[in-house]
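Is zinc ion placement plausible here? Inputs below.
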Amino acid sequence: MNITRCFSVNSVKKAIISDRGSSNLPNFEWRKWVPIKCNIMAWRVNLDRLASRVNLRRRNVDISSVMCPFCDEYEETVDHFFTACAVAIRVWAAISARCNIPRSSLSNSKI
Ligand SMILES: [Zn+2]
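Reply from A.M.:
I modeled the complex. Tokens:
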């Protein structure tokens, strides 16, 4: 995360290099292993360009409700869908457990 508190690949790379203490380690090579469709999805999330119910309403699409279909407590925005919904929180917890990623490292990043 950079000074604007926005996620970027460059900030992750700098954090990894900072943790290692040097960028001159011979085995450090940045590999782009994330599939392009995941990069495009993340890019659209960052721009708030996904077809959330709130965004559909903003585009004058006729929908019956803008409430989140999982919790029905809040409007379905991109932020709610990926980070605030109770269902999303459980999914991220399961992913972090499966990938052995401490929850504290996920809580500061914007998805
Ligand atoms: Zn929800």
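Short version: The radius of gyration is 17 Å.
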